[in-house]
Design brief:
Blueprint (H helix, E strand, L loop, with lengths): L3 H10 L6 E8 L6 E9 L2 E9 L6 H16 L18 E3 L9 E7 L16 H18 L13 H17 L5 H8 L1 H18 L6 E4 L8 E4 L2 E5 L6 E4 H13 L12 H15 L10 H28 L4 H19 L1 H17 L1
Antiparallel strand pairs: 1-2, 2-3, 3-5, 4-5, 6-9, 7-8
């Protein structure tokens, strides 16, 4: 007997020439969209695909943007991203209005199933040195392949320098809706620390950003949980639905925040500087002497410490917006908020800031 979920998947699959549905398994790792590994059979041959039901509220223009970026990467020999398959009518997505559901409807897309192993999530990833170097090289190649490219459609995600002023009002909004949870109490206790750090970061970046800081299409969610590995090498990159035009150095900083911020109880919020040094060196060397987009410039390196702070605040914004708008576990989200606050405390320590700055400035000496 077909379940409602089987019927939903089968109905969307019928718009493609990919065969008949013979099995599926939900991907539990996603936090925004709902995704499945599906298996089909066509002419006696079985194949696996990645099936995505997009979050409610996503616009056609956003899908066009994401899918055009994927197609541009593939056409420029960046072949470790998942191909998005066209329907029989040539569209890269399917739209359906659910019975009695949201009149805006729901969007779906089907992607190729990438090889490799899912070794990590965004929480507490500790990669091996070869994985770190390979991840940096892939990010550099990603930026290089997208230099000068203007995607189709548009994105609603705000650029980092426009988002920072908005975060303050969202913190206030979150507290105005407080209902006595451990999350609310911790946010209130650390309100002054968080807002002061936010304002300092915004001011510093306004002072140091310049024309020497490149803007390209960035991934904006580059972490080990969105990569697949094989024998220490990255063989797959996915989840480009956050990609947008923004500062390249922000994307590098966000990646380093995800890769190298510790989560262990006694070191929560600390940055692993040796691993960060390896990542930066591999990124810079990948673009050294290449045509087009070069390594991070002196101006970009000069902004990187504060961009790491902005990256942490970027994820603070996600934590707060999820907490406000979804039914979430306050204890789970308290863990995220504590991680952000401890990262702020580490970054605000003058000794740590000096060590971090020294790690970054060593790249200028090597150049």
């Amino acid at each position: 007997m077909e379940t409602p979920l089987w019927s939903e998947l089968n109905s969307i699959l019928s718009q493609y020439d990919l065969g008949d549905l013979v099995g599926f398994e939900q991907d539990k790792r996603g936090t925004v969209n709902t995704s499945f590994s599906i298996e089909t059979q066509k002419e006696g041959i079985r194949n696996r695909y990645f099936f995505r039901r997009y979050k409610r509220g996503v616009r056609i223009e956003e899908l066009q943007c994401e899918h055009s970026i994927i197609n541009h990467l593939l056409s420029n020999h960046f072949d470790i991203v998942a191909r998005v398959y066209p329907t029989r009518e040539g569209s890269t997505y399917v739209w359906r209005r659910e019975d009695g559901g949201d009149p805006e409807g729901v969007f779906y897309a089907i992607f190729s199933f990438l090889p490799g192993d899912d070794l990590y999530t965004w929480i507490d990833p500790v990669c091996s040195p070869p994985e770190i170097a390979s991840s940096a090289q892939v990010l550099a190649r990603f930026h290089q392949a997208l230099e000068g490219y203007t995607p189709l459609g548009s994105k609603v995600e705000t650029k980092i320098m426009d988002l920072l002023p908005v975060i303050d009002s969202r913190i206030v909004k979150c507290l105005s809706k407080a209902h006595g949870t451990v999350f609310d109490s911790y946010l209130q206790e650390n309100l002054t620390l968080l807002r002061d750090h936010l304002h300092r970061t915004q001011h510093r970046l306004q002072s140091c950003l310049s024309d020497g800081c490149a803007e390209v299409v960035i991934h904006c969610d580059y972490h080990p949980g969105n990569l697949k590995f094989e024998n220490g090498q990255v063989v797959g990159l996915f989840d480009l639905d956050w990609s947008k035009l923004d500062y390249r150095c922000f994307d590098v900083a966000l990646a380093m925040f995800y890769f190298f911020t510790c989560w262990e109880a006694d070191r929560d919020g600390c940055l692993r500087l040796d691993d960060m040094d390896l990542f930066l060196d591999a990124y810079q060397r990948t673009l050294q002497g290449k045509p087009g987009l070069g390594p991070l410039s002196s101006d970009e390196l000069g902004c990187l410490v504060d961009m790491i702070a902005a990256a942490n605040l970027y994820v603070v914004n996600w934590t707060i917006m999820d907490y406000i708008n979804k039914e979430v576990d306050p204890v789970e989200y308290l863990m995220y908020l504590q991680h952000h606050i401890r990262t702020i405390q580490w970054l605000d320590d003058p000794i740590h800031r000096s060590l971090l700055d020294g790690c970054i400035q060593r790249q200028q000496v090597r150049d």
